[in-house]
Task: structure prediction
Amino acid sequence: QQQQQQQQVRPGVPLVQGNNRATPPPQQTGQGQAPQFQYDTASFAVTELGRRIGTVLGQQSNAGVFSPVSIACALSLLLLGADNETKRELQNVLNFNLNERDTRRVHRQYGRMLRELAVTSPDTYPIPWRVNDRCSDDDDDDEDFRPEPQLIHLANALFVKDGLQVNPAFVDASQGFYNTTINLMDFAGNPQQSAANINRWASDNTYGKINQIVSNYISPETQMIVANALYFKGLWKEVFEKQATTFRKFYPDGHANPSTAKEILTMAVIGCFPYYDAVKYDAKIVGLPYQGEKTALYVIIPNNSSRARLQQLQRTLNAEKIGDMVSQMTVRKALVQIPKMKISNTINLRDILQKLNLHSLFNPATSDLSKMLKTSGPATADPYNPDRVIFADTRQQPQQQQRLYASEIIHKVELEINEKGTEGGAVTASTIFRSLPSVQVRIDTPFLMMIGHDNTRLPLFYGSIYDPSG
Result:
């Protein structure tokens, strides 16, 4: 039993040496104790990538929400085809600063995790607060209630110019690790139909949430499009009754600056929620579980929150610290008020990734994606929802210097947080404010959010919210 327990505890391994990068903590699980929050190398790397992108994006947007899983998936596919400086820079931005053998191990690990996202069986590596939850047990008095399964769908595709000599080893690796489909496109002869086919793929794989990832006209010089789509739908475990939703003040610049407050539609509920007052990080964290016991929306609020305070926290709150906070959470009876939000973001990641020292990929003179092709080839790029990268021909280059490069990487996100969720439940507007519990979480100042998947520890969505109204 002890041996089996040790196998289930999967501490991460150091990824990148240096003072500015965190490494997964080697936590231990003692006999009779709940398991700690553990990262694999891949899940740690994706969480760190999310924090680093979010730190840059949070300086530019009122609602900088994105999908770290989706972005990492697209970059990982590029890494499979990269060499030399482009490969080294991709490894660094992905936190995969490993030798070739270990990099392939992480690809296998990450691919396995992506497949696990769609699994609905019980978690192998439960989150500690779920193991110790007694509050929810007391409330489960509806024997006829059956939770709705959540839906997580992730798809990868390569759209390749008909006649382009793609390296069979790259095709095998992309299919083996990431279950990528290969689609031949007549970019030169019928660019409009090619665009329609790609957009249809995006719509089908996001259940209609994102209908366009490329323009209706694709350049005839396009060689390849690397695409990734992520769709998530989860119903709340605790009911948010619509009658309890009302306009409440939200303070984008903190309570100390009430003149900038806005009236925002805010949901409210009393129920059982994981919670932790993280004194050492000067912040609080609350979790809103979805049905199915596999995912939760985590909200982290700095004490005396404001735009500046949240930016400061985000710069220092690395993957290790987030894991530590989640490990300390316990389920409490709590009042939770959270803004009702509909987030629609289109993010050009080129400038952000360049700030993270990914340069050569975007330079036709230095980009090296030669492992994608049988021979060195050409390019232009532009990614999408969760993400799309387009490769086009650089005909102005001498034949021997033609190469694939990314012109831009576009990330699209549609995310809605509303009252829809658990069917059946006992909380109504009349009971919400009658007897308030000791834990009250009023999310009315800038906050950090993350939709986390328990079994893989992967962040499906991540971002900072400074102004829910946009």
Residues 38-119+151-233+344-416 form a domain with the Antithrombin; Chain I, domain 2 fold (CATH 3.30.497.10). The chain has two domains: 38-119+151-233+344-416, 137-149+235-340+418-454. The chain is about 30% helix and 25% strand.
